[in-house]
Amino acid sequence: MSTALFTFCTLFCLSVAAMPAQAQTGGGPLKPFKDDLFSNQTVLSTGDGGASQVIDYQEMRDINGRDDTPERRVKRQYVDLAPKRVQEMETVSVAGRSIDVGRVGQPSGQAFTVIFIHGRGGDRRLGMNDYTFGGNFNRLKNLAVENGGTYYAPSVKSFDQNGVADIAALISDAKAKSGGKPVILACASMGSFICYGVSRDAAAVANLKGMALLGGAVDPDFPKSAFIKAKKPVWFTHGSQDSVYSADQQGSTFRGLLKTGVPTRFTLYQSGTHGTPVRMTDWRAVLNWILAH
To answer: Which of 139, 141, 196, 263 has the most CB atoms around its CB within 10 Å?
Structure first.
C-alpha cells in the first residue's frame, strides 16, 4: 500500500480489526436477492460515523473462486435469468434525441428507475451482460424487476455535453413515464463524466433521486454543482489500487461533502483495481440507501 493510501485509510477508519459483516445492506424498500452471495462482504474497518467502509477484496476468491471462466462467465448460482421476460434492446426517442438502450422492466408505471452508464469502449451490452462482472448486473436486473422497478443501460455516444444531454433526456423521460417516481443514475469509470455533467444541469438534477459513482474520475467542480447544492445522496465505490482514477482523491471529495452535510457514502475495496467496483458494489445496499434519502 502506498503511503498516501495508508494515510487515507488511517484518516477514515475507526477500527482495523477484520470482522465478517454485511457491507451496509441494512433495511430498505428493496427485498433481498441472493444477499448471501453478493452482500456478505467482510468489513475490514468502518469510519465517519458509519459513512465509510473498507471491504476485503481478494482476486483469487472474488474472481477466480466466483467465476467458471475468470472475468468472462460467473458460476451459475449467481445468475437468475427471469428478467429476460421483460428485457428489450430498443431506441428511446425523447426531446428530438434517439438513445439506444437496454431496458429491463416495464416501460412505464415503474416504482423506480436505475440508469447505468458504462465507461470508455463500452456500450449498452456491458450493463446487460448477465455473466460478466461476477453476475453483478444480473443481480441489478433482478432487484429492479422483483421490486417493480426498471433498469436502463444506455449506449453513450460521447462523454461530452452531447452525451450528457442524451442522458438528461433519458432521465426526464423515465421520470415522466413512471409518474414521478425516483430515478437513480449510476456511472462507472469514464461514465462518471456523464454523472458530473448531469450534476451541473439544474433541470436534470430536479429529476434525480441520487447518484452512485463506481471507480469514477474526480471532478473538482462537483462540490459546487446543482446536485450537491440540492444535497442529494451520492455513494462512491472505489478500488484502493485503482491506477486510472485515484482512490485518495475520491476519498477527499467524499470527506469534503460529508463535512458540509451532504448525504454521502464511500466504500473502498482493499487491493481492488479499476474494475473492482463494477464487480463488487452491493447494489441492494446502494439503492436502498439512496431511496431512503
So the answer is: 141
